[in-house]
Every structure is written in structure tokens, then in C-alpha cells.
Amino acid sequence: MKLFSTLVLLVLTAIQCQPQDYGKLEYCMTLPDLLEENSGISIAQNTSYLYAINDSGGAATIFSIHPDHKQIEQDITISNAQNVDWEDLASFENNVFIGDFGNNENDRKDQTIYWVENIDQIQPGSYTAFAKTTTFTFEDQKKYPPKKKNHNFDVEAFFVYQSHFYLFTRNRIPRMEFDGTTKVYKVPMKEGAQTAILIDKFKTCSDRDDCQITSAAIHHQTGKIALLSYNKVWVLENYTGDHFFSGDIHKIKLDYTSQKESITFKDATTVYISEESSSKKQGNIYTLNLKKF
Asked: What is the pTM for the complete model shown?
């Protein structure tokens, strides 16, 4: 009996010691407890930090993580903002932009983008910052909410390009009618009330659980774009102007499904990807080497 118990213990220990299979992703770090509902990450110029936010109901705070130290080293509370539903971060030069445009029910009229300028000049520790603001409404939304078959006004993904914000919708159309279409809107990078102009559409794939766009990023030096879902990354290159789907589109299946909520470029060939925590585990940050696929 003792021998049997010992064998069972050895088997269980061996199973527990097996490395987690993250598919094509490489584990980077586990997110701190303060970021259990992480919904956005980004890197600004001239800093070593990975900036991160939580989504709806969280504090109106940007947290800064040093990837080498793997801990929060800075928190920046936005004094003139609230976190209605922060869903993505973007950066351009030394500025970080917060997308408060989560819109699950498609009934919001107060979507806002907050600007934090010269973030590289903020030292480690706790700080308060005042942000510029851009608000917007969609040119083609007439009802709040529209009929469920038109629930495609939720935004969880954006980036900055050529003095404009580019927004990608997360399609909330019911499963039976879902076709994976993400709509692309263009908003001037200006303060005050703006109109989001519909410029393009793209069908990702037809599985509602795996084809909703949850984040977007652009590598400013190369123009390479990455779009994220729970188990896929779409890489866009060699497009014309801001017709992002006119060039080469490469789909990468990650082979690891989780609530992945944000993507940002580490360099021209590598992206960071983060996920929210689940009931089973704290969320992680991963890297994906685009050159391998």
C-alpha cells in the first residue's frame, strides 16, 4: 500500500511539474494582482516601461511595469477621467492614449480617448496627470442601442496613425448571424467632439468565440499592424494609405485560447500579448515572434 501511495504521489508531482502549453506563445510574466482585469498594454518611446490598464469599473489609473523587474513601478491616476470601460492603450512618440470606448450593449454616446503627454518624463512612484480628451460618435449609428443584428459598435482596439485614431469594432452580433466583420473607423487626433468615419470592413472568421477583435497595434517604423482575438493574430503589411486590408494579411492561430485583451509591438518582429485573469489563474503577458510563423 505504501508503494502504491508513493507511485501515485510521484505521478501527481510529475504532472504538476509539466510546463504549461501556451501554444505558439512564449511566457513572459504573470500580471500583478492590481492588473487582474488588464485590458490594454502599450510601449511609449524613450521608456523601458510596459504601460497597462484595467477595464470597466477599475481605477482611472495607468500602471507601469518594467518587463525585466516584472513588477509595477509606477501608477499614474488621470485626474479628469473615469474608467467607464477602458479597453485599449495606444502610443505615439512619448504620448499614451487610453480608449474608454467599451460598448458591449452598443448604447454609449460618451466614448472618449484620453491623452497623456510626455509620459516618459514621469518618474517611478505614484503620480496624478491631467489628460487631453477626444470624444466621438459613429457616423452610421442612429439608434442607441440598435437592433441586435446591428450590434457592431463596440470598440476594444485602436492605434494612432498619420494624426488619426483608427478604431476596430468588436462584433457583438448574435451567434446565428455572426460573420466576423470588424468595422474600421477614422477619428481626427484632435481634442473635443469628433465624428468617427467608417472607412473599411473586414471579415475575420465566423467563429464568434474566436473571431472578435479585442486589441490592435501598429509598429510605427515599419507600418506593420497586428489585430488580436482570443486565439488568433492577424498581421497586416504592404497596404496602401490607410486601406489596411489592401495588402498582405497573415493569420496566425495561437493554439492557446484565453481571454486575450491586448497586443503591442515590442519591436518590428515581436509582440507582447496580455490576457485577463480567470477564475482558475492570474493573467499573463506573453511574447509572440512573428518571424516564426
From this structure: 0.93
Give CA–CA dist 121/253, Å, rounded: 38
More confident residue, 4 or 91: 91
Report cis status (omega within 30 of 0) of the bond before 188. Answer: no
Show Cβ contacts of residue 109 under 8 Å, excluding neighbours closer than 6 positions.
137, 144
Contact 63, 113 (CB under 8 A): no
Domains of the chain from N-terminus onward: 23-292 (2.120.10)
Contacts of 264 (CB under 8 A, 6+ apart): 41, 42, 43, 50, 89, 91, 217, 271, 272
Give mean pLDDT, residues 104-132: 95
Q: Which residues have C-beta within 8 Å of that of residue 3, sequence separation ≥ 6?
A: none
First CA to last CA distance, the chain: 50
